Amino acid sequence: MKANITIDIKAEFVKDKDGYTAYADVFNAYGMGNTKMEAQKSLKQAIDVYVDEYMRLGVLFDKLQKFGFKKSVIIPKPKKNKTYKKINYDIPLNNYGKERLHA
To answer: Model's pTM, two decimal places?
Structure first.
């Protein structure tokens, strides 16, 4: 099971004659694009660089906490459509127990 964290980042979008600029002050990251969606995608790529570097340095959670993010755990609800199947699993015993027979 993969563990993921999700954070909500406030992004500011500014439209000018060249398109859109997106800014996330929490990471001091910028993105640009012809459309708002392109600017958002560019901003996410810029944030990826920060997150990757913080993970490499082992300080991601410290940085997030410094930025004001709070830790919380959300336990996913179990899926109602579970299925079960009997499977065979063989455990090779090889010489297990032979020492008892000869004792």
So the answer is: 0.64
